[in-house]
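Example record

Each entry pairs one chain with its bound ligand, acetoacetyl-coenzyme A.
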Amino acid sequence: MADVGVSDIAIHIPIYYLSHHDLAAARNIPVEKYTVGLGNKTMAIIPNWEDTVTMAANAAWQLLNKTGTDPDEIQQMVVSTESGVDYSKPVASYVQGLLKIGTQCRVYEIKHACYGGTAGLINSIDRLSQNSSSTKKALVIMTDIARYGFESLGEPTQGAGAIALLVERGPKFFTVDTSRNGVFSKNVFDFWRPSGHSVPIVDGKYSIECYLTALEGAAQHLRSNLGLKKENLFDILDYIIYHMPYSKMAEKAHKCLVEAEYKDLDSSSRERIFEESFKNMVAPGLRGVREVGNIYTGSVYMGLMSLLEEERERVEGKKIGVFSYGSGCGAEFFICDVKPNIKNIIKRLDFIKQLDRRKKISIDHYTHIYSKQDKDVIFFSPEVQNFKDNFTRFVFKGIKDHKRQYI
Ligand code: CAA
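Structure tokens for the complex follow.
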């Protein structure tokens, strides 16, 4: 296995959030349905001066900045999104321009619902692994606005955010032996957004079923690739991060994995294993989804940041199982082998700082923002001109002559 993997990670979370208490009150729903039934507390709301391009560029800018990476070192830049801004011109090209990435770089956008970012990451690791003399790096970005119909069942599972990962030889954070990965894909209609639709069509209950089927399939494949006979996945993993459209989904997924791995035990022993292992292996990675919501392609990587913020140096040298799921559907279960010293990465994560800087908005403000999305207007209002935020370098100015403008 080549020594290629991820050296660092950065996130961009929008400045606004809506509380699930306020949403529940407005929708006349008992708040426990959102806070206990779905397990979320607040969700990120993107202001009109941001979009998937600015979030991607803002996350990647932080990453390049904190790692001291010269944009010319980037040999491949993959941006994954399922909420892109154009049917043809990729988000990746806008980001290339904003970050001043050189022309000798392969730049493209990738889509496979929430799984696209993982496909981009695995491909980038494999690509750099093939080139033994290369000192070049790859930038993998996931950026999404999870938006559902106004007053729909999916509405409390909205969110927005972007993640950027730096992939290179001699990585400082973790490696992945991609030959062991478990995969599962199948043609299903669980969640999809036909061309021209601004929000997805979702068969909610069926989407959960498809997710769990994919988890079982990918876990089985991973187990077989690892050659596990007497041992199971719980014997070798220290933490697990599941794709999280809402935090309760991680609980459902973990229950499903415990049942599959401990088939021979009785149900009360399985319940005990579930409770203990959930608390130690899964719960430390849940803060992001509870406070930001679904960020689609970046979901598992926000889980990784949450885990690092919570567990700090305890993650050093550990094995983290990551289950990435995208509707449609495609899934991959892989293992991050964390390096023994990641103190510098932990020191400058800045995820909690970003959460703490956010401003709570009212339900009326949310309704106003929601109604303005997708409108072709110039937004460069005094509100945007006076906006100051340590984590936002690029903003969306508006659309002129069918061209998106950024500053
Ligand atoms: N107090 C406590 N809990 C309550 C409650 C109350 N008053 N009222 C309801 N609940 C519980 C329910 O028992 C249920 O819990 P379980 O799932 O453990 O049974 C939970 O709250 C949700 O309630 P419903 O079953 O009534 O669900 P819903 O009809 O409101 O829909 C949803 C939930 C399907 C997740 C919907 O929000 C949705 O469609 N979301 C978008 C799709 C999605 O996220 N799918 C997940 C898998 S697909 C995927 O992961 C890809 C992706 O990113 C989209």
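The pocket of acetoacetyl-coenzyme A is lined by residues 30, 32-33, 36-38, 114, 153-154, 157, 190-191, 202, 204-205, 207-208, 211, 243, 245, 248-249, 294, 296, 325, 327 (CB under 6 Å).
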